[in-house]
Structure formats: structure tokens, C-alpha cells
Amino acid sequence: MPDKVKFTDEQLEQVISNYYAQANSQCPNCNARLNIVCGEARQLPKWFSIDCPRCKSGGQIADKKYLNNRQWTVEEEKAIEDAYWENKSALCPIDNSVLVIQERSFAESAKGYLSAACSRCGNALDTKKERLP
Ligand SMILES: [Zn+2]
Ligand SMILES: [Zn+2]
């Protein structure tokens, strides 16, 4: 088995991206599945502690996606909405994270609405809100 190593920032970034995309991450050193712990959620940027239970490699990283996030554009929000209704899932156009989406309906309306949020970059949308043209 390989000796314990410290993961590079690039390796740690990839692990976090997989985490938000709900994909598995394997240890770059020995291919074992990794333990990923997200630090205090209210603290920004979020901190992640990542370690391999097998070879004991690992590292810690702040998620920099929080520091330079931008707002979703109107076109991106429209694409998220379409993707959800067509496939029941959607990805964040900025960081490819799986979005948390809730379908909502209101008695006074014949239409269904969505609320969608990215837990990584913090963008959110609510299609019930009137959008400016
Ligand atoms: Zn390992
Ligand atoms: Zn995002």
C-alpha cells in the first residue's frame, strides 16, 4: 500500500467538486473511497477535511467557490427550470453541483413553481417571483 501523502490543492478541489456533484471520490493515492467532512456550515468559505481511511492520506481546504461566486443569469435560471421539469434534476451552471429543488404549487394558481438552490455557490431561484424581462 502507498505511504501516506498530503493531497495537493488541485486534488482536494476535485474531491469537493465530486462531493457537490454527488459523485464518488477516490483517494488519488490508493483509490479507496474518501471520508469527507464539511466544517461549520455557517462559516464562509466552507472548510472541508478530507481523509483516506486506508492509506491515511488527506488534507484540508477552504471552498473558494464561495469567494468569487456570481449570480445566475436569467438564461441560466430558465435552463435550470427547463432541465428540472424535463429530467427532475438540474446542475448549477457555475460549479456543476446538484441543485436542491422543490416543486411547489399554490391553490390560487394553475401553474407549478420551483425553488432551486445551490448549496455550493449559494445561488437560489424561486420561479414564483416575477422576473424582470
Ligand atoms: Zn488512500
Ligand atoms: Zn453553484
Short synopsis of the structure:
This protein has 133 residues and is an alpha+beta fold. It contains two helices and six strands.
Describe the protein:
With 133 residues, the protein is of the alpha+beta class. It has two domains: 9-66, N-terminal domain of TfIIb; 74-126, no CATH class. It has two helices and six strands; from the N terminus they run αβββαβββ. The protein has helices spanning 9-20, 74-87; strands at residues 35-38, 47-51, 58-62, 100-105, 112-117, 124-126. The strands form two sheets. It has a three-stranded antiparallel β-sheet, with helices on one face. Strands 4-5-6 form a three-stranded antiparallel β-sheet, covered by helices on one side. β5 and β6 (124-126) form a beta hairpin. The mean pLDDT is 88. Bound molecules: zinc ion (2 copies). One zinc ion binds next to loops.
Keywords:
133 residues, alpha+beta, N-terminal domain of TfIIb, 2 domains, 3-stranded antiparallel β-sheet
Layout of strands and helices, then pairs:
Elements: H1 9-20, E1 35-38, E2 47-51, E3 58-62, H2 74-87, E4 100-105, E5 112-117, E6 124-126
Antiparallel strand pairs: 1-2, 2-3, 4-5, 5-6
The structure holds zinc ion (2 copies).
One zinc ion (ZN) is lined by residues 27, 29-30, 32, 52, 54-55, 57.
Distance between the termini: 59 Å
- Tell me what the CATH architecture of the largest domain is: Single Sheet
Oligomeric state of the chains in view = single chain
Number of helices: 2
The helix content is: 10-25%
Which small-molecule species are bound to the chains here?
Answer: zinc ion
At the fold tier of CATH, the topology name of the largest domain is N-terminal domain of TfIIb
Strand order of the largest sheet: 1-2-3
Total tally of structural domains: 2
Rg on CA atoms, Å: 18 Å
DSSP strand tally: 6
- CATH class of the largest domain equals Mainly Beta
Shape assignment? elongated
Detail the poorly predicted runs.
none
> Major sheet: size, sense and barrel closure?
3 strands, antiparallel
* Series of H and E elements: HEEEHEEE
